[in-house]
Design brief:
Protein name: Proteasome subunit alpha type-7, variant 3
Distance between the termini: 40 Å
Helix content: 40-55%
Structural class: alpha+beta
Strand order of the largest sheet: 1-2-3-4-5
Shape: globular
Enzyme class: hydrolase
Largest sheet: 5 strands, antiparallel
Organism: Entomophthora muscae
Keywords: Hydrolase, Proteasome
Number of strands: 7
Order of helices and strands: HEEHHEEEHHEEH
EC number: 3.4.25.1
């Protein structure tokens, strides 16, 4: 299985409004996705409406945290990012292996997450539209990538945005190509200043 196949397989839709990505152990990520799907289906069966993003994040956090309490099960080795759009508006949360979960305006996980978080903190998120955000994310991902150490980067993005009527979809390839060019140009301009 190629890295691209692995990444695509870990981008999971629970419904057209919920999305989850994981960083860490593949099997643990699959297990959490299965559990989150079960929670979402159970909520739908009982309440006849899609589960709110905050609620599914809390339920998965409780499940992950329970695995840190007992010696009969091992803790999860995965960090999960959950994005949703429901009647409460947008929700972005990150679930850590300890079971701690926080809501964020922007977050990063995995290799290079510290650099990515620093770059995300510099953004004026209140004044970015979805297309500008895609450009900035491409710039940040390209900034975190080290050509000398890492394999060639394959840039993939998904979004829940007004352009998709707040459904989770892949960013169209033409927009992604423009974002990649924006990121490469921004990095070249920064390097020229240095």
């Amino acid at each position: 299985m190629s890295m691209l196949d692995w990444l695509v397989s870990m981008h999971i839709n629970f419904s057209k409004f919920l999305f989850k990505a994981t960083s860490g152990m593949y099997a643990d990520g699959k297990h959490l996705v299965k559990r989150a799907r079960e929670e979402a289906q159970q909520y739908l069966n009982i309440y006849r409406s899609p589960i709110p993003g905050k609620m599914i994040a809390d339920r998965v956090c409780n499940y992950v945290q329970a695995h840190t309490l007992y010696s009969s099960v091992r803790p999860f080795g995965v960090t999960a990012i959950l994005a949703a759009h429901d009647h409460n508006g947008p929700y972005l949360g990150m679930i850590e292996p300890s079971g701690v979960g926080w809501g964020y305006r922007a977050c990063a996980a995995g290799k290079g997450h510290k650099v990515a978080k620093t770059e995300l903190e510099k953004l004026d998120l209140d004044n970015l539209d979805a297309l500008q955000a895609v450009n900035e994310v491409a710039r940040i991902l390209l900034t975190c990538h080290d050509d000398s150490k890492d394999k060639p980067i394959e840039l993939e993005m998904t979004w829940i945005a007004p352009q998709t009527d707040f459904h989770h979809e892949r960013v169209p390839q033409d927009i992604l190509d423009q974002a990649r060019q924006f990121g490469e140009d921004a990095i070249k301009a920064r390097d020229m200043e240095d």
